[in-house]
């Protein structure tokens, strides 16, 4: 047990409390339990798989259309002010249905500026190991090779998409998620995971968090948790929500601000006959480069959108999806207001991309159309998706060098609080185009170093 617990007690004691069991909370838990500390991890969501936090693709053998419906059902919209922005409230968070695309951010255009290049390289390399990132998943696919060669002959630089997954002995793909991250510590006596437990608030005295409150959503009972160190990894919107609800926002002017969300363009194509003779899956991507601030992924994947008509022969259909970086702007923000039915202050978004961001998105749309038509004909017309569709909100608890423009330092420790660390895409300070989770894991691994140093001091 990662807690000292007496049946009649309303106070749980542990070395580290982690709020949120998504992949980032899981990374913190894994590293701290492996270092010998007691960890209590709580999540407001239910445990939906026998092994906590399994990727649902590993357990449900369903079509992509059906998996899209699973994702739609799992997503809880956060606010009518950005209807597409959502959270997944479950053990495992969004890693129960994410698409596992885990690219390394471009070293000069996207990577965090807070770390030296060699430090960042070592953090990201460990992050890749922990998520089992590989670019070889579809190496035997001749269709993937042919598409790459065809596109790269006209000046592109498409590569096999790095995916967080492993192959089983019989060749099945096992997608990484909270369950694969936690698997080495799941049976540890130092680790406790409580589903259906909401952490509404933490309490601060002087420079320290002294306790956190916890509500069991199954029994509506209330607990207090006393820990040495506290880690909030509840997602880019619900982490600042807890801090706001704990009356700590006055001393953290950057909380909720500098919010970035990628703009997304999307279409689906039926591949031209010249490619349709080749067999195999396709999952290729092109990253950002000077003058091109977007990433392009060509594959066939389940998202909360993009279902195809049941009677369509989908064998030759591919998704073409681009995501552009937007520049961090202090005015783009999530704010919190009146309390909702869960007793937490409700988020509302004030976000508008700048003219420069919109110009990049317009260029991205043109390039996506030209790429798509070079490969086949449209099944789904190209469109710009509503803001929030990427589900990659970042920056709301950004890391930086001062409390005026950031919420945490380079160890992801909250400014002015000795024992409070944050994790997740919220800490990412840069406006990145590429998928953010691997980068958030890199930040978390540095955060682990800070927590360990504090625990041993
Ligand atoms: C369909 C889909 C596809 C995606 N594909 C990719 C991809 O290919 N590549 C990529 O990089 N990213 C992708 N993402 C995003 C990725 O899943 C997230 O970046 C990642 O899961 C964030 O991890 P996290 O641990 O910070 O937060 P989350 O996974 O959001 O987990 C946060 C957890 O905190 C819990 N929580 C919230 N508030 C409280 C509270 N007050 N008390 C207790 N618990 C609380 C929630 O229940 C949740 O379980 C995708 C997301 C979706 C939905």
Automatic annotation (TrEMBL):
Record-annotated Glucose-methanol-choline oxidoreductase N-terminal domain positions: 175-262
GO MF: FAD binding; oxidoreductase activity, acting on CH-OH group of donors
Cofactor(s) listed in the protein's UniProt record: FAD
Gene3D superfamilies noted in UniProt: FAD/NAD(P)-binding domain
A Pfam family this chain is assigned to: GMC_oxred_C
Keywords from the UniProt entry: FAD, Flavoprotein, Oxidoreductase
Domain FAD-binding: 13-49
InterPro entries per record: FAD-bd, FAD/NAD-bd_sf, GMC_OxRdtase_N, GMC_OxRtase_C, P2Ox-like
Name this polypeptide is given: FAD/NAD(P)-binding domain-containing protein
Top-level taxonomy: Eukaryota, Fungi, Dikarya, Ascomycota, Pezizomycotina
């Amino acid at each position: 047990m990662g807690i000292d617990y007496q049946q009649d007690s309303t106070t749980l004691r542990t070395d580290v409390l982690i709020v949120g069991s998504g992949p980032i909370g899981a990374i913190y838990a894994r590293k701290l339990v492996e270092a010998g500390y007691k960890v209590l991890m709580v999540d407001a969501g239910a445990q939906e798989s026998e092994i906590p936090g399994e990727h649902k693709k590993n357990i449900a053998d369903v079509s992509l259309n059906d998996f899209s419906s699973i994702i739609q059902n799992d997503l809880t919209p956060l606010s009518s002010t950005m209807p597409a922005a959502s959270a997944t409230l479950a053990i495992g968070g969004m890693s129960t249905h994410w698409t596992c695309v885990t690219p390394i951010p471009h070293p000069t255009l996207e990577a965090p500026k807070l770390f030296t290049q060699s430090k960042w390289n070592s953090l990201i390399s460990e992050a890749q190991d922990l998520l089992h990132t590989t670019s070889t998943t579809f190496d035997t696919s001749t269709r993937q090779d042919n598409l790459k060669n065809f596109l790269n002959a006209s000046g592109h630089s498409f590569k096999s998409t790095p995916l967080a997954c492993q192959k089983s002995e019989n060749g099945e793909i096992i997608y990484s998620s909270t369950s694969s991250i936690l698997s080495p510590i799941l049976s540890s006596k130092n680790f406790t995971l409580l589903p259906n437990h909401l952490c509404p608030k933490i309490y601060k005295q002087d420079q320290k968090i002294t306790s956190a409150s916890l509500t069991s959503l199954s029994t509506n009972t209330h607990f207090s948790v006393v820990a040495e160190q506290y880690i909030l990894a509840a997602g880019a919107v619900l982490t600042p929500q807890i801090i706001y609800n704990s009356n700590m926002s006055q001393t953290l002017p950057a909380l909720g601000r500098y919010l970035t969300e990628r703009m997304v363009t999307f279409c689906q194509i039926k591949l031209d006959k010249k490619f349709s003779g080749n067999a195999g899956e396709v999952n290729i991507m092109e990253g950002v480069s000077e003058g091109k601030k977007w990433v392009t992924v060509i594959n066939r994947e389940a998202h909360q959108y993009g279902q195809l008509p049941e009677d369509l022969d989908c064998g030759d259909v591919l998704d073409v999806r681009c995501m552009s970086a937007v520049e961090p702007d202090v005015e783009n923000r999530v704010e919190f207001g009146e309390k909702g039915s869960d007793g937490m202050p409700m988020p509302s978004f004030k976000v508008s991309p700048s003219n420069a961001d919109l110009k990049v998105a317009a260029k991205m749309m043109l390039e996506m159309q030209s790429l798509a038509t070079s490969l086949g004909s449209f099944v789904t017309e190209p469109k710009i998706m509503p803001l929030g569709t990427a589900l990659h909100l970042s920056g709301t608890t950004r890391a930086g060098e001062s409390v005026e423009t950031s919420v945490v330092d380079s160890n992801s420790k909250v400014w002015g609080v000795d024992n409070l660390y944050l994790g997740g895409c919220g800490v990412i300070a840069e406006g990145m185009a590429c998928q953010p989770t691997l980068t958030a894991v890199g930040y978390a691994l540095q955060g682990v170093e800070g927590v360990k140093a504090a625990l041993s001091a």
